[in-house]
Write a structure and sequence with these properties.
globular, 150 residues, alpha+beta, 48% helix, 4 strands, Nuclear Transport Factor 2, Chain: A
Amino acid sequence: MANTYRVWVVAALALITSGCFQSDYAYMKEGESYARQLVQFVGWQWNADELISKADPRMLQAFPESEIKKLMSECSANLGILQHAEELVGAVSRETQIPGKSALYTFDVQGQKGNATIRVKLQKQDEDWKVLGFWVQIKGPGNPPAQSPK
């Protein structure tokens, strides 16, 4: 009797866990195209106003509009117009500071003047995706360039 009970508990846990992973994967895949479009659209002219319009209020509390505009200005000066973006990884997480799920995407980007890594953190609220974070790490001359399109 005890062995049968253990089998049922293990089976129930396996079903619940697989449902969570499938749900997380679907969430990540759904946000992937939004993240890609955001990186490409913002990077085309390093448009701070576009990024600000998509930002969650929590992002604007952590990174005021003036800091976002400064970041976009630095990206424009160091990278130029974005020419190529390649997603490297996407992941779903649950954090204590942010209720619900969020998804983090990392892109290798190539601009007219240089290369960078961009990380975008998104969260779906009702039917809309909101930006929780947008980080740019410009690669120095000693770093390998972003991969070119195939």
